[in-house]
Amino acid sequence: MVLTVPVKDGGSYLGDIPLQIDTDDRLTFPSIRIVQVLSELLSPDVLENLRTSFGGKVQVGPGDFAPVGIGVEYDPRTLELRFNIPTERRASRAVSVSALDRTRIGELLKPADFSAYINVRSSLDLVEDGFDEGLRSPIMLLDGAVRLGSIVVESDAIWQPGAFGGDFQRLGSRLVFDDTRRLVRISAGDLETQARGFQSAPDIAGISIFRSYSVLNPQQVVRPRGDRAFRLDRASTVEVVVNGQQVRRLQLAPGNYNLRDFPFTQGGNDIRLNILDDTGRTEVVQFNLFVDQTQLGKGLSEFGLYAGVKAPLGLRGPRYSNDWIASGYYRRGISDAFTLGANFQADANSRMGGFEAVVGTRFGTIGTNVSFSHVDGIGSGHAFNATFQRLIQRPSGLGDTFNVFIERRSKRFAPVAFFLPENPYRFELGGGYTHAFTTSLFAGLDARFSKGRGGRPDVHNYRLSGGWRLTERATLNAEARYQRDTLGRDFSGFVSLIVRLGRYSTVRSEYDTRDNRFRSSYQTLSGSGVGSYNVTADVERSDNGAGVSVNANYFANRAELGFSHFGTYTRGFGNSLNQRSTLRLGTSLALADGAVSVGRPIFDSFAIVKPHRSLGKADVIVDASSFGNAANSGTLRTATMPSLPSYSERTVPLDVKDAAPGTDIGQGAFRVFPSYRSGYVVTVGSDYNVTALGVMIDVDGQPVSLVSGTATEVAHPERAAQTVFTNRQGRFGATGLAPGKWRIEMLDAARSTFEIEVPADANGVIQLGTIRAREGK
């Protein structure tokens, strides 16, 4: 007898297999199929030994698994083939801690083939008192991008009508192409140079190739993952706790596991696994790991190479020279504990090269940079720094932090583009230590010493600080400082009190003895997105004078509005010295595949959301939450979603205010994975929003009673059909229809078929009256 039965590992279903039961109750099943079912469950060596023990057999039985220590039994009551696999025979499975499941609604949208935007951030100053009183010329900061296929053109500039020396200054323009498969960005034009170690970031016009995981793949965990293997002999619940906070709860079957992708913080991390098996037995696995944010996981690499000509910024824009220049760096994770890098810079007159290293140990992280330079006509030089960071965890859950650094630069050391290098200090060293006495009280000490060169005096800076959380709403901080430099010796104190007035408002008062300065400030914010605002106000008095400042920002649907006022006075708020008020406006114009929208400034990628004509004047709300919404279509009938970061998946909810009953708005959300500076067009609603009502009569003149059927669009038979039901009198309602011809096929005995026509101007509910079935089947 041959049965198809499920294969089970404990309570886990692995797949189905044909099971042959002979007259003597001997069990056999296909060897190829069982190896396939168990391939993900067994360790590679056990799986290979199993194949070898089969010896080429086509059919195998429970006895063939005995050599590798695996038990097999058949349960005739449940018709299940069960495998008993020892833990040591199981494969190690990776479980990600930080990659928590996200809500995914619908398919990823495709970005527009062509998109563009421009941001305008303008400010207008009015000087009421002081030098050059009156209304000043407005200043406009312009930036924007055009994306055509996979190529981006981006630029930014400053425009100030009537400004001395030129009213328009282009800051930089470039072409950008991202190779997302290799995680490489290629740019040509005015480059955005990145620096490592002792490098400078010179202005270069040319071409660059660049990789940064935080830019091109921000969702990837590139720091050491903290892989930690553990074994479960029974089905268990595992709680993962990092630095006292539970980050994930897992239900795991027996086996070997490797936890990875911990959400580490900078510095020391205390990881604890609380394991509770199905018998109630508990076990705790605990370990510590120190992580520096500059570390890379094993085998990962970041780099940047920039080459071209020097292009310093002039009054009207970059000034392109004939002087070549190049800069670059490369970093790689040699292991999860060791990251190594090298860098260089060169032009016609100077060269510089060096290396960096970051080593993570159980005691802390050690980092170092070493560089050597040569400038023609000046000489050679070198530079070196080293740092050590450590977090000391205590059993109480509190911790101390400790860091120390040393840096040395020779007199003639210089990166490229530095004229006549002169380093005033032989070396600098310093460090700090912070101790938490309780969750509400801490104190710290830090120091810095700089050794002068060539007669320059040494510089000393020492600080003792502390903080005390008086209540849930009030915190007191204080500092005692000692400084000795070219101006002499100075001992000063500082104290501040921060009081939260509510969830979104705070008052801060502080006093500094150095210039007898007292300052009090208030800040508040409300909501996010459309209709949100924030306000900050400060009052300050010192031996040098007094001042008052106010700053407020309001975020509208189409623009960001701001106002600020800054006033200075003589000591004691006597005479006014300067009074300046500023009005600010920021807005954007976006274009994507023919759709145009005005909205708040765009930061990277964007989406234009527009209502379908079937929605009439209903308002589309984008990304609504309890704190506000990102945008709404309003009277212009388009909305700009201005903040879609590139290479980060995002699901944006949609809603329609005051929509007619039965309106189809689709899935109520859209999901995107934006490319760099890409644009999307999202239409809310569709033509498929018509509901047809009527009565069905079959070919014999009788109502088509109490049956279901389907409505298919004749012009688009590939679309999913709509379900139709009738009542006892044959009345029906067909929803989700669009203008055009539809075929309705019912499942009554006569298989009645109807054809209806939805008018082109139909919207909402239409009455068809009585419709009769077509003759024939």
Chart the SSEs and their pairings.
Layout: E1 2-9, E2 12-21, E3 27-30, H1 31-38, H2 44-54, E4 59-60, E5 71-75, E6 80-84, E7 92-96, E8 114-129, E9 134-135, E10 139-148, E11 151-159, E12 168-179, E13 184-190, E14 204-211, H3 213-216, E15 228-232, E16 236-242, E17 245-252, E18 255-260, E19 267-277, E20 282-291, E21 301-310, E22 324-335, E23 338-347, E24 350-360, E25 365-375, E26 379-393, E27 399-409, E28 425-438, E29 441-452, E30 459-469, E31 474-485, E32 488-500, E33 505-512, E34 517-526, E35 532-542, E36 545-555, E37 560-569, E38 576-592, E39 595-599, E40 605-611, E41 619-622, E42 631-632, E43 639-644, E44 650-657, E45 669-672, E46 679-684, E47 690-697, E48 708-713, E49 722-726, E50 731-737, E51 740-746, E52 753-758, E53 765-772
Parallel strand pairs: 1-6, 7-18, 40-46, 47-53
Antiparallel strand pairs: 1-2, 2-3, 3-4, 5-6, 8-9, 8-10, 8-38, 10-11, 11-12, 12-13, 13-14, 14-21, 15-18, 16-17, 16-19, 19-20, 21-22, 22-23, 23-24, 24-25, 25-26, 26-27, 27-28, 28-29, 29-30, 30-31, 31-32, 32-33, 33-34, 34-35, 35-36, 36-37, 37-38, 38-39, 40-43, 41-42, 41-44, 44-45, 47-50, 48-49, ...
